[in-house]
Each structure stands twice: as C-alpha cells, then as structure tokens.
Amino acid sequence: MSNKVEKDEITGTDTTGHEWDGIKELDNPMPRWWLWTMYASIVWAIGYWIVMPAWPLVTSYTSGFIGYSSRGSLEQELAKATEAHAQDRAALVALELSEVKNNDQLYQFALRGGKSAFAVNCSQCHGSGAQGAPGFPNLNDDDWLWGGNMDAIYETIKYGIRSDHEDTRIGEMPAFLTDEMLTKDQINDVSEYVLSLSEDRKDMAAVDRGQEVYAENCAACHGDNAKGGREFGAPDLTDAIWFYGKDKDIILKTISRGRGNVMPAWVDRLDETTIRQLALYVHSLGGGE
Amino acid sequence: MVDSSVENIDVRPVNKKENRALFEKREKIQPKKARGNFRRLKWIIMGITLGIYYITPWIRWDRGESGPDQAVLVDFARERFYFFFIELWPQEIYYITGLLILAAISLFLVTSLFGRAWCGYSCPQTVWTDLFIFVERMVEGDRNARLRLDKAPMSISKLSKRVLKHSIWLVIGVLTGGAWVFYFADAPTLLRELFTFEAPVIAYSSVAALTATTYVFGGLMREQVCTYMCPWPRIQGAMVDEDTLTVTYHGARGEPRGPHKKGEPWTDRGHCIDCNQCVAVCPMGIDIRDGLQLECITCALCIDACDDVMDKIDLPRGLISYDTHVGQFDSNPERKLNIRFIRPRTIAYGLILALVGAVMLFTLLNRSILDVNVIRDRNPLFVTLSDGSIRNGYTVKILNKIHETRRFLIEVEGLKGVQAWLESGPPLGLPMLVTVPADSLSSYKLYVSVPAENLDGKSSDIDIVVTDFESSERDLQASSFKGPDK
Ligand code: SF4
Ligand code: SF4
C-alpha cells in the first residue's frame, strides 16, 4: 500500500493513495443524499440520547427526557389490560362457577386467562398440557382424587392439598413397612391383590391373602370395592389410571414407604379472579364433572 | 433564411450520457409543452387513472346487514378485503398473490409488445409528474418563461408565483394522500372524522406521508425517480427485443442532420433539421436521436413535437415514431409499420396469463362459503380415561363466509365405538349441532374417545365431518387419532 495521491488518467479524479494489488481507489466525493442522510442520522442520534434512556453510568444510566423504560411500558400495558377487563373480572367473581358457562364471552375470557395462568403457575408440575407426570395428576382425564366438578377444583387450587394452609385437605398414604404395620410378605400379597383388580394375576394364593390384608388396612380409605375415596384423596385402584405408575415395584414402594405429595395453596399468591379462571380452565380440559 | 416556422431551440439534454457527470447537482429539466395525438392520449389516460383513483372509494355496494357498503375496502379491523362482489379472508391472500402475478405477467406482455407503455402513460410517477408540470406551466408559463423566471432576481411577482405553485402542489399531495386512506375505512365516515379531528392518528400520518412523497416525487425529484430509484427500467430490458415497439428516431432517414432553409433541396442530407424540439419537450432530459436509452419512458411527446415540425416543413410525419429496432435503419419516409405480435415470447407470456387467469377464475367461482379446519391436540397427545379408553382432543374451526347465520352438524367417523362431545356443547350422546354467526369464525373444542381395543396402533385415521344443517353442504376433514403403543 502506497500513500501517493495521483491523478487517475481515465476519470481525471485524484486517488486516495491507497492501492491493493494494483487496484487504486478513486477519491470520489460521497453522494450528497448519502451525506445528508448521515448528518440527519447524527442529529437524530443526539436527540435520541436526550429523549430516551441511552448512556450507561457507573451504577445507573441516563434515563432520558421522557423517562421511558420497557419495563415501565409493560407495566402500563398490563395495568391497562387489567383495567380493560375490569368488568369481566368482576362478573367472574360475582357468579357461581357453574353459571359462567352460560355467558360464552365471559367463559372464553376465563379459559384464556386460565390457560396463561396455568402456563405460569401450574405447568412446572402438571406439565404444559396438564398431562401430569408420576406423582402429579393428569388433569385431562376423568379420574379425580379430590373431586372434579368446578367447585372441587376451585377448592383444591385455592387451599392446596397437604399444604401449609389451615383449610387444606389432608389424606396420607401410610408407610406400612417403615412404620412396621405390615410385613414384607403382606405388602407383596396386597400389591398382588391390587394389581388383580385390573388384570389377571398368576399367584392367586397371594391375591387371596392380599385381599384380607386389604380389607383390614386399606379399605378404610380406598373403599371396600377399592374405588377410592375422595374425602381422603385416595385413588381408585380398579381403573386404568395409575397415579405413580402401573408397575409392581412402584406399588410395593408406595405401600412400604407411603406417599404424601403437596399441592400448594394458591390463595395467598393469586387473586380470586385468576383462581377461578384456573378452575374453569382445568375443568374444561376434558375430564370435568 | 432558416425555416422561420420552426423555432430552433437552444436546449441541452441534461441526461445525455456525455452531459452527465457523477456527483453533479441536478440541473432542472424544463419540458416544453407538446401538442399532438400522444399528448391528447396522455391527457385522457391521466383523466381516467386519476378518476379511478379518486372515485373508487366512493362507490357503494350493498352487502346486507353484516357487511360494509363500500365497493372496494381493505378492512384491517375486521380482517377482510372487499372488492365489489368478491370478499376475501386473510387466509385467502393467495388471490392477491394471483392478482399480482397476473399484473406482473400482463406488464411483461405489454412491455414485450409496446415497450415501456406502463412508464409512459399509466405509472403513477408519470401521471402525477405530468400533473405537476401542468400546474407549473399554468402558474409560471411554458419552458421559456420558466427559464426566464429561474434567472430573474427575486421579486414580489416571482415569489408569489413560486408560493402559488408549491401551494397547489401541496394541495394535490394532500388530496392524493387523502384519497389513499379512504380505501381502508368507510370513506364518508372517515372524511367527516378527518375534518372534525376524530380520525385515527394512522389516518393523519398516512395522509402526511403520502402528501410528502407525492410532493417530493412529483414536484421535486421527477425524472430522478425513474432514472435512479425505480428498478423497472433495469428489469424491462429483459422483455424488450428487436420486435418490440419503442419510440424510435429513424436515423437512416434523419441523418446527416443540419439546419435547413426554406426551399433548399432535401438531397444529400437527412430530414432532421436539428431544431431540438424533440429534446425540449422531453421530460426526461434526453435526446431520442441518441437511440434507445434507459431514461426514455416512451411518453412519445418527442413524436408529437417532431411530427409538428415535419408538418411545418412539408415532410411526411414519423421521423420519430413508434417503431421496432430495425426501423431506425430504414430510410424510407413512407415506411409501413410491420409488427410481429405473435412471437415465442408473447406466446409464452400469453399462455402463463391465460393459465393463471383460468386458475384464479376457477377457484374464485368455486370458492367455498364454508371452511373447516381441524387441529389435533398435541399436548397431551392422548389421554387415557379411567375405563381404559383413549381420548383425543381436537379444535374444530368453522368459517361461515356468508352473511347469514348457519347451523352445522359435527360428526366423527372412521373408528369403531367412537364417542364424541363438545366441551362447550350439549352432553355426550346428543347430536353436536352448532350455530355459527354470519360472516365469522367459530372455534369448538371437540373430545373424541375410542375404546383402546378398537385402535390398532399409535395412530389411526379418523374423519371429522361438518355438515350444513339446512343445505347439506359437507366438509370432511381427515385427521388422525393417537393412542399408546400396542
Ligand atoms: S428529430 Fe425532429 S424534432 Fe428532433 S431535431 Fe430533428 S427535426 Fe427537430
Ligand atoms: S425521448 Fe421522447 S419518448 Fe423518451 S422520454 Fe423523452 S420525450 Fe418521452
């Protein structure tokens, strides 16, 4: 690269003196429209620094003339949205849950609100499609531990299950082996019996012994017919849905060690409207009673 | 004596290649008024195009209770495009694509036949520039008067002429932008709102933006838009061939050019008397005698100017005329124009045009007034119910495209033992009859359950059928039903 400015023969223009592999750069002026656009951009940028948040300082930043922040504008918009829905929100709280469905516009409002609240608060355990996981109930199906009508769902969400709220509902699966209530053999027998309720088992002797163990230890909560009991949240043991999985090892573990999952109480964290929206949304997933 | 009937004009074609230096400040072109057939044709086309543009939004069209009564309306709020009897939903945007294809191919066809007919006569840039030049001429006079005015020192009269000219331009700009927004809202309502300051901000800003562009493009930039900004002059070269009609100077007849005195013989010289009339009228600032150039929009004003000259000096018209490429080498003044309309290129364009047009027409005539969409739930894929049967969820969307409320029956077919119910509808076991309001979309949550033993794998075929309860119009949507591994 040389630095000799020379006149280009063909165009009569000076070169910049830069040369790469014999190619010389002509020192042509910038197009005028281009220059003016650049000057205008500079003026715009200076205006922008003054009006909008722009420069980082040591612990803060210049906040700009109009005090804009994206967080602030989001808050404003959220407030505006809440404000705009004030009527629907009030109506939702005033009505019986079962009546909401009669007003389609309000019902759709509730479902949409419930869907987004579910994604934020519930999907971590129940899954984004409310499909559940072992130990976390699937909310799409027609099997409900604590009741599947709107009011029961509402109560579950509001006060939780085995939560720290005083109005929570409690029911516990005892740890029959750990607490020495049953022997290992008895537990094996009773799990054979439980499995026999929904499929054929080979060891009918164990099933028969297990039935006796069941009647003495389990029927109080799960019912004589093993159809479960909602006052204790005891699952139906005869149907196709298994809370922790349909596997003998899992059943053995459940009986031996007990179970006691917690559903938190949402009454202190979500407002009444949102809890109601959630209840209606969960009810709409297909299994609502 | 130089032929006195023809004024010899001292004019520099500013956009002639040799005259155009890079980075030079633009020299304003002051086109002289042309008189003749093409000028008349251009006035007529200007009247028609401006008329269409300004009047269209005011045409009314009856669509009954639930539709707007504006014939042409792009309704963003309701997500509809109305065009007389046609009414399009957003998902039918492909009709617009089809229209754009038709427009593009038509443009190709016309260009391959007649050169830049679009540029010369009907392009908005040309039409509005023509209008702005007309205003300029009305206020400041024709070319010579304008040149004088430009050189004159500032005076009350010069200032008032300038102010008047720019004011009229701005008014045209406002009217142009003002007409534009009427395509997007009910015109009479919007007009009232615009004047009472109740119109939406976007309406005012659109008017302002289009006022600015009209004023700047038509009044200030003019030929620079065509020469520097518009891609079309570059593209059109691909459609033009030696059989295309373009504005042609018959060099073989015109050269050698030179001044001519009345009574002198025409032997040993060409017919061009070098009067420069053709250059003076050119709005693009070029000399057509240099041949076909990128800048030439084929406005044909130089044809009018030269024909006028030929009449005065008693030579046949057509020294400059619409002709094909070969024409410039023909020195016969009585040359007969021989256009080959049928060429492989025009046949190809014609066929594409016919094909796209036929497809469009067919789909438009057979456009259904019912549209059904079925979206299967993916999360969860399926749900096991307590009796062991498998349930899938579907969202069924029904579009009722007419302006009447309709009732539809939803049925599920294809698997044994199917049970189906709507989340919001009547309980299981009753027919699923739904009511969709006029001109709208309704969405339903459909649950379908099938005994596990009736499924033979992870995925089975299932049909969701929507039937118009009154007319029995049916729409069958094939979907699938997911279950666990067997
Ligand atoms: S082409 Fe016609 S208008 Fe142009 S200079 Fe020659 S005679 Fe005059
Ligand atoms: S050369 Fe003739 S046809 Fe071309 S732009 Fe100029 S006046 Fe119009």
TrEMBL record, chain A:
Residues 1-20 are annotated as: Disordered. One of its GO terms (molecular function) is electron transfer activity. The chain crosses the membrane at residues 33-51. Heme c 2 binds at residues 173, 218, 221-222. Its cofactor is heme c. One of its GO terms (cellular component) is plasma membrane. Keywords: Cell inner membrane, Cell membrane, Electron transport, Heme, Hydrogen ion transport, Ion transport, Iron, Membrane, Metal-binding, Oxidoreductase, Repeat, Respiratory chain, Transmembrane, Transmembrane helix, Transport. Pathway: Energy metabolism; oxidative phosphorylation. InterPro entries: CcoP_N (IPR032858), CcoP_N_sf (IPR038414), Cyt_c-like_dom (IPR009056), Cyt_c-like_dom_sf (IPR036909), Cyt_C_IC (IPR008168), Cyt_c_oxidase_cbb3_su3 (IPR004678), Cytochrome_c_Oxidase_Subunit (IPR050597). Binds 2 heme C groups per subunit. NCBIfam families: ccoP. C-type cytochrome. Part of the cbb3-type cytochrome c oxidase complex. This is Cbb3-type cytochrome c oxidase subunit. It comes from Sneathiella litorea. The lineage of its organism: Bacteria, Pseudomonadati, Pseudomonadota, Alphaproteobacteria, Sneathiellales. The gene is ccoP.
From TrEMBL, chain B:
This is Cytochrome c oxidase accessory protein CcoG. PROSITE patterns: 4FE4S_FER_1 (PS00198), 4FE4S_FER_2 (PS51379). InterPro entries: 4Fe4S_Fe-S-bd, 4Fe4S_Fe_S_CS, Cyt_c_oxidase_cbb3_FixG, Electron_Trans/Redox, FixG_C, Ig-like_fold. Keywords: 4Fe-4S, Electron transport, Iron, Iron-sulfur, Membrane, Metal-binding, Transmembrane, Transmembrane helix, Transport. One of its GO terms (cellular component) is plasma membrane. Residues 263-291 form the 4Fe-4S ferredoxin-type domain. It comes from Sneathiella litorea. It holds the Pfam family Fer4_5. The chain crosses the membrane at residues 41-59, 93-114, 167-185, 201-220, 346-365.
